[in-house]
C-alpha cells in the first residue's frame, strides 16, 4: 500500500471514526490532508478519554512513533480497549515504513513527495 493509498484509507475511516493525536500541530497536519474528526489529548487526562469519546464506537489512535508517542499509544489503547472501543490500529506501523516519526510532519512529507521534478532550490 502506497503512502497515498494509506492516507486515502485514513481519510475514509475518519468520516465515521475519531482520530486521536497528541497535539495541535498533529491535528493541523491531518486536517490539511483532509482527515476529519481529529481530537488531541493535549491538556486532557487519559482517564477522561472514554468520556470525551462517548458515542464514538471506532477510534484511530495515531501518536508519534518516538518513545514518548509509543508510551502514550500503549496507555490509550489499554484504556480504550478496556472500555469496549473498537480500535483501528493499523496506521502507526505503516507510517513508520515510510519514515514518518512525527504525525505533524506527515503533511510536509506528502507535499514533498508531490513536488514536480526540478522543484527545489536553484544551484
Automatic annotation (TrEMBL):
<protein>
    <submittedName>
        <fullName>Topoisomerase</fullName>
    </submittedName>
</protein>
<dbReference type="Pfam" id="PF01751">
    <property type="entry name" value="Toprim"/>
</dbReference>
<dbReference type="GO" id="GO:0016853">
    <property type="term" value="F:isomerase activity"/>
</dbReference>
<dbReference type="InterPro" id="IPR006171">
    <property type="entry name" value="TOPRIM_dom"/>
</dbReference>
<feature type="domain" description="Toprim">
    <location>
        <begin position="18"/>
        <end position="82"/>
    </location>
</feature>
<keyword id="KW-0413">Isomerase</keyword>
Amino acid at each position: 500500500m502506497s503512502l497515498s493509498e494509506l492516507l486515502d484509507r485514513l481519510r475514509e475511516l475518519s468520516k465515521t471514526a475519531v482520530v486521536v493525536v497528541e497535539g495541535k500541530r498533529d491535528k493541523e497536519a491531518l486536517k490539511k490532508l483532509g482527515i476529519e474528526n481529529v481530537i488531541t489529548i493535549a491538556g486532557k487526562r487519559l482517564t477522561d478519554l472514554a468520556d470525551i469519546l462517548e458515542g464514538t464506537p471506532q477510534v484511530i489512535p495515531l501518536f508519534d512513533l518516538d518513545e514518548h508517542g509509543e508510551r502514550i499509544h500503549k496507555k490509550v489503547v489499554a484504556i480504550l480497549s478496556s472500555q469496549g472501543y473498537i480500535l483501528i490500529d493499523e496506521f502507526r506501523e505503516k507510517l513508520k515504513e515510510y519514515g514518518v516519526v512525527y504525525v505533524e510532519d506527515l503533511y510536509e512529507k506528502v507535499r514533498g513527495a508531490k513536488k514536480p521534478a526540478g522543484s527545489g532550490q536553484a544551484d
